[in-house]
Amino acid sequence: SYLTWDQIKILDQVLTEAIPIHGRGNFPTLEVKPKDIIRMAKEQLIEKQIHVRDIRLNGSSASHILVKHNGTSYKDLDIIFGVELPSELELQVVKEAVFNCLLDLLPKCVNKQKITAQTMKDAYVQKMVRVSADHDCWSLISLSNNNGKNVELKFVSLLRQQFEFSVDSFQIILDSILAIDRASDRPLTQDCHPAIITESMYGDFNQAMDHLKYRLIFTRNPEEIRGGGLLKYSNLLVRDFKPADEAEIKSLERYMCSRFFIDFPDVAEQQRKIESYLHNHFIGEEKSKYDYLMTLRGVVNKSTVCLMGHKRRQTLNMITILALKVLGEQNIIPNAANVTCYYQPAPYISDRNFSSYYIAHGQPPVFYQLYP
Q1: What is the tens place of the pLDDT at every residue in 281-312?
Q2: Which of 116, 277, 314, 359 has the most beta carbons within 10 angstroms of its beta carbon?
Q3: Which residues fall within 8 angstroms of residue 103, CB to CB, at 6 or more apart?
Q4: Is residue 361 part of a domain?
Q5: Domain total for the chain?
Q6: Quick count: other Cβ atoms within 10 Å of Cβ 336?
Q7: Which of 3-31 are b and which e, b meaning 16 or more Cβ less than 10 Å from the residue's Cβ?
């Protein structure tokens, strides 16, 4: 499918609006237009003999351009470079290319000769991921933005599962608009603009568009997605998206939970992942964090079948405590009718000299338990 003129105007605005890349410590904030850093990264890759098949805008930012009127928003700017990465060496070259771009963006007064790649990583990179397996070969470098609007540069040779849900399965191929922008400084007009193709990795473009327009949730094979798509699914629910198929979603929820607990088996790992998701996706939406956590808790509570009872209780209690922490940070006291607190008696109370105390034998030590 091709973008309409109205959609092209939104895309042009997204690509030309400067985004701050915030530096840590004494490093300055870099104001950069997405189209500029895309061009710089591509030039660096070509210079280092890495073939670039195409460049695409991916995920929620692409969805925002396709259907802006229903309130679809985006946080990260997700750019995919289709590249050939036959070995670990090319993955290292990709990282160096991005750091060189950041180095070029530093003010001219900065002495760049003594700045190492590790220094640039520590100063400007939010996260880095590198995957090299049979059906997956890709690298992600996410550049820091304190407002949660990270520029995410993804270099993909192979990617088995290219989307989590149909509503974020869209990709807009940017090569034509980048080429015309480089060839001419004249603004785009309705009579003079490139043809821009958009695709859905879901497969059925029209059905995926219906899901996006009507805020419907659908996915395939969540057991093949890292984390099962569980955290994204709960995010969609809290933003008033509804399952496209109520009967099928019950089965899919079980797969989501199972894969999440396979990838993050330890409660501490689960907590770090959830806290990281909150930090990256709810900046400026502090009041939504509690609703999100309780929605997530509800899904885990009803759809987790792969954990033993005590493991499941540990996870539920961890999510509950996170929710209470969020309320505490906002100085909100929950309705006491919905809170049950259990306190484990001190060990000495079981001494026979304290027989006047009543001990509820068999009650597990649960510190907080909320019911939505």
Answers
A1: 888 888 899 999 999 999 999 988 777 778 88
A2: 277
A3: 112, 115, 120
A4: no
A5: 2
A6: 8
A7: beeebbbebbebbeeebbbbbeeebeebe
Quote the distance between the C-alpha of residue 66 and its chain's center. 19
Provide the 3-class DSSP secondary structure of residue 173: strand
Based on the fold, state whether residues 55 and 200 are members of the same structural domain. yes
Give percent above pLDDT 70 in the chain.
87
Q: What is the spatial distance between Cα 121 and Cα 143, in angstroms, rounded to a whole number?
A: 9
Give the CA angle between residues 36, 37, 40 to the nearest 5°: 90
Residue 14, φ and ψ in degrees, nearest 5? -60, -40
Question: What is the DSSP secondary structure assignment for residue 347, as one 8-state letter?
Answer: G
- Does residue 204 share a domain with residue 70? yes
- Residue 344 pLDDT greater than 80, yes or no: no
pLDDT for 212-268, tens place per residue? 999 999 999 999 898 999 999 999 999 999 999 998 999 999 999 999 999 999 999
Decide the pairing of beta strands 216-217 and 242-243.
parallel
- 45 contacts 139 by C-beta, under 8 angstroms: no
